Amino acid sequence: MNKHQIETQYQAAREQYAELGVDTEAVLRQLEQLEISMHCWQGDDVTGLEQMAGGTSGGIMSTGSSPGIARDGDELRDDMAMALSLLPGRHRVNLHASYAETGSDQVDRDSYEMRHFEAWLNWARQHQLAVDFNPTLFGHRLADDNMTLTHPDESTRQFWIRHCQASRRIADGFGRALGRPSICNIWIPDGSKDIPADRGVLRRRLKDSLDAILSEALPGEHLVDAIESKLFGVGVESFTAGSHEFYMGYLAHSHALGRRNVVLTLDMGHYHPTEAVSDKISALLTFYPRLLVHVSRPVKWDSDHVVITDDALQDLMREIHRSDAFDRVSLATDFFDGSINRIAAWVIGLRATRRAALQAMLEPTERIREAEAAGRLADRLALTEEAKHLPAQAIWNEFCVREQVPAGLNYLEPIHEYERKILRERS
Ligand SMILES: [Mn+2]
User: Of 325, 355, 385, which one is at a domain's C-terminal end?
Assistant: First the structure.
């Protein structure tokens, strides 16, 4: 499809949306402003760049052996730049602490500093990207028993506390250096395979650890703290210390202490399969000003499949749109699939995320609300159904043209070429 066809189809679609009271030009402006934080760990199957520790664990697992996995930081950044060149709209980059490049420095995670992320900072500057950050509490000899911030051994627990403290300072450093606040998201794998005798002691220890981590006052204009719950993981099926209820409580506790910069993270793969993450948006925004969503796709469990257009994603975006909260809900992708071209995985997942946001923004919400307010519930349902089949694709293609990235499927050929020229050369 060429530019002329895209423009013709866009004009026809624009009129169709206008009839239902939707201004597509305003939607395109909003979509362009929407920042999505692209995770780095899709590019190397969550391996990381450290000298001293490696691999996943902690109940998460990447599978697949597509050729050309990034072998060092430069290759990973090249691959990310390639993916970003095929994505319309604004992006941030999401790093894990395990992507530190320590060179000849024999330094462990509790002593990481900003200088170990120098290459990432320079790269982010060059590509005008803000950076989000995550301490890495898995894939390490001191996390082999799936206990970190809840660890009964005091020195091990203190190691992980120091790691999270160091991570907050690094996130603060990125926020300062780039002039855009960094979100520092804490997720821990802590739990147990079988039924623990004392859940309370583990959770009280987690609370104390988080208090120790968050007690250092760092200015909110550079740093936002996020806490991420989980239901279960492989090897920790019976108990997870950091459950949704735990962190809901911890959030209330933090805000009561005046730590208003702590937000909750909703990972779409971290709940019961029939639980609707979309429904949590308006519930949380009633009490807290901000949220972070990890956009993922669970398949029967928290499998972290590449994000695609499915009901869970569409419902999530619709709720954010209906809450008029795209500026209060931060979006960050979180998936890893090594069984397909890893760059295509990023591009497909990130494009699906933004397209779902577009689909939501294009909804004739005013009409649907009018019908609801008037008690015309059949009209509400009919309009909601009709909205699913309006020509959103024509608006998306026009957006891609304006953003100077490939429309439709045209992003595939550059990926194939990159695979032939770059990925196949990596052994
Ligand atoms: Mn997550």
Answer: 355
